[in-house]
């Protein structure tokens, strides 16, 4: 009886911790959706929609924390969703939780928080980011994305880069290079959100992973702006 009582007490103590961890990840997914909606629906600036039509995955890091002036460290947690189906032409997937870490140069002032949006432009980039820790600009080629819905996206740099990136801080939106930073799946956050040991690839590519309600805004925005990939 004592053993059963101890186990019951332990469960009562652990369950609130699990719920709290899941709630934090759900808040991060919701915040990512809001950031993406604000940027994509900006009337006079933002990410060219034709680039989103060509992208295979989208990564959003809301409120990335940075320190120091010009040179310093970055730390962020966000989400990644990819098109499903053959040749990445299906609807957008459930979000996988991702981490952004490492050195950063030239895009920060003080200790402010910055939102980042990244487009993964091809299958090689998508699979490498989902499977392991990737150095941006090293393991995966990267470029600062053009700004404005009507900005030209047909340059050699845009077409050859595996990752295109943008930032927004204190109302200012710009293309930005994240070269030198690293991106990886956040396995702990994925477990907190989904309650199972799913890998990032499981979440994105396996249909049995149920999409959380917290991803409603994120996926609705992408399906509205770019429901199908265009070659």
Ends: how far apart? 65 Å
Order of helices and strands: HHEEEEHEEHEEEHHH
Helix content: 25-40%
Q: Indicate how many domains the architecture comprises.
A: 1
Structural overview:
It is a single chain. Helix content is 36%, strand content 26%. The protein is built from seven helices and nine strands. It has helices spanning 2-40, 49-54, 123-131, 156-160, 187-194, 200-205, 216-225, and strands at residues 57-66, 71-82, 96-105, 113-120, 134-135, 142-144, 163-169, 172-175, 181-185. Strands 1, 2, 3, 4, 5, 6, 7, 8 and 9 form a nine-stranded mixed beta sheet that branches. Helix 1 packs across helix 5 (187-194). It is globular and about 70 Å long. Residues 5-11 and 105-109 have low confidence and may be disordered.
SSE layout:
Layout: H1 2-40, H2 49-54, E1 57-66, E2 71-82, E3 96-105, E4 113-120, H3 123-131, E5 134-135, E6 142-144, H4 156-160, E7 163-169, E8 172-175, E9 181-185, H5 187-194, H6 200-205, H7 216-225
Parallel strand pairs: 6-7
Antiparallel strand pairs: 1-2, 1-4, 2-3, 3-9, 4-7, 5-9, 7-8
Helix pairs in contact: 1-5, 1-7
């Amino acid at each position: 009886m004592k053993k059963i009582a101890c186990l019951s007490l332990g469960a009562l103590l652990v369950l609130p911790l699990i719920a709290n961890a899941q709630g934090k990840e759900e808040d991060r997914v919701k915040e990512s959706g809001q950031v993406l909606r604000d940027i994509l629906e900006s009337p006079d600036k933002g990410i060219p929609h034709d680039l989103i039509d060509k992208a295979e995955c989208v990564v959003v890091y809301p409120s990335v924390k940075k320190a120091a002036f010009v040179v310093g460290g970055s730390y962020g947690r966000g989400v990644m969703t990819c098109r499903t189906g053959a040749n990445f032409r299906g609807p957008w997937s459930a979000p996988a939780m991702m981490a952004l870490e490492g050195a950063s140069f030239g895009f920060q002032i003080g200790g402010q928080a910055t939102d980042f949006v990244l487009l993964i432009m091809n299958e090689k980039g998508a699979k490498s980011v989902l499977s392991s820790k990737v150095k941006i600009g090293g393991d995966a080629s990267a470029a600062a994305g053009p700004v404005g819905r009507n900005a030209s996206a047909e340059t050699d740099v845009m077409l050859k880069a595996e990752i295109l990136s943008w930032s927004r801080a204190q109302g200012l939106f710009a293309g930005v290079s994240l070269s030198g930073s690293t991106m990886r799946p956040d396995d702990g956050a994925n477990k907190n959100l989904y309650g199972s040991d799913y890998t990032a690839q499981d979440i994105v590519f396996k249909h049995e992973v149920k999409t959380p309600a917290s991803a409603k805004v994120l996926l609705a925005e992408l399906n509205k702006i770019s429901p199908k990939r265009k070659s």
